[in-house]
Amino acid sequence: MTDPKLLGCAALISFFIGSAAIAEPAPGGRLFDDLNKYASFGAHRTGTPADLETSAWMAREIEAAGISVERRPFSVNRFVPDSAELITAGGTVAGFPAWFPAVTPPSGTPAPLVQLRADGGLEGPTNSIAWVDGDTAGVWHEVDVALWAERAATAGAVGLVLAIDHPSGKLYQQNAKPPHVQAPLPLPVLIVPASSAATIRQALGQDVTLRVTGVQEEAHGINLLGRVRRGTGPWVVVSTPTSGWFGAAGERGPGVALWLSLARAMAAQEGRTNYLFVAASGHELDYLGARTLLGEGVLPPPEAVRAWLHLGASIGTRDWEIRDGRAVPLERMQPNSYAFANEQLQERLHRALAEVTAIRVLPVEHLPESRGGELTLYRDAGYPVAGFVGSHRYFHTPRDQPDVTSPALLAPFDRALQQFLNDLSSGD
């Protein structure tokens, strides 16, 4: 007969084994937790409290893994929006100021609303507010906001309302471009979603009021340099941008989460490879943080770097399907993400990403500067680069929230990129 005490012990062991199995974290769970933490700070515009808190949190996380962190501030001309709207007889249309904002008086600028043609002519009097609809403005990711502002100012307008027809139907904000990264546009510009067009068209020829107001301040962003120094051997650099217009959960969150995961993993390993973990703010301001780092002489020279892995936009974000007019999330990757690598790293990255069948690895030389973000800056500085660029359904919109990805979509990238880094250091 079996001893009842043994039966009790067996049951207890079974309970704990079962509980451990249930409690085992799902793949990608910590990545998604970090992504949610990133999103919880709010709008990540450079130099804002949310941006500074993000940098401080990331620094603490990798310091806890034993990594030495250098915090490098850089100056930024910060604009804090107060109001951004067009007031018409048919209602108020909310938008967002084009960067860098020129402002109206606090009460707004009253004037007739008139169409601005593609040739730059106003279909009405000067001293009016110009309107450019989504069709006239062009394809959403190719709209030249500064050019339209120059056309409107040259035509004698006192303000511009510009619709950008983003595929999601949401408000879409472009990154700032020279010469208006830190200097105002020639006139106040309100960006609105194309869905506002019907209300605005009804106001053509009528008096409206444009309000673009806010506070301009001297501020600073933070670049982080986390070093795992093991001797005189080569460096492997892992970088990610940290800032963005809004919550940027899918645009920036996956890169931030993967950066943290890779930093923890590499710090825990032995070897002779030196690692540098770069987290640069200023992304939406023409990559201001990365440009500052490249100009400061604090990075290892290209000849001392074995590889530079850049964790750019929209890694592991999901695809969507439109059903009955609603966007339904799918548990598969969207098709607008790309990996690029130089010749010496292309096969390594392709091999590491074998599990991620939705990603192709393309030659980085084919990546245009206008589409490549910081990756093209590091490439053009002579570094042996590999990395990711892309967009997703809610890219650069206020709707970019954590549900645009999932633990299951992020986990394969963590496995692949740890393999990529381990492969690079296998000869140590």
Please explain how this structure is put together.
The radius of gyration is 25 Å and the shape is elongated. It contains 11 helices and 16 strands. It starts with a helix and ends with a helix. The strands form 2 sheets. Strands 1, 2, 3, 4, 5, 6, 7, 8, 9, 10, 11, 14, 15 and 16 form a 14-stranded mixed β-sheet that branches. It has 428 residues and is an alpha/beta fold. α2 crosses α7, α2 packs across α11 and α7 packs across α11. It folds into 2 domains: 256 residues, Zn peptidases (Aminopeptidase), CATH 3.40.630.10; 116 residues, Glucose Oxidase, domain 1 (3-Layer(bba) Sandwich), CATH 3.50.30.
Q: How would you summarize this macromolecular structure in one to three sentences?
A:
The protein has about 425 residues and is of the alpha/beta class. About 30% of the residues lie in helices and about 30% in strands.
Number of helix segments?
11
Largest sheet: 14 strands, mixed
Strand content: 25-35%
Compute the CA-based radius of gyration. Answer: 25 Å
| Helical amount | 25-40%
Shape by Cα distribution: elongated
Uncertain runs are: 1-25
Q: What number is the mean pLDDT? A: 92
- State the end-to-end CA separation: 59 Å
Keywords:
11 helices; disordered N terminus; 16 strands; 28% strand; Aminopeptidase; 30% helix
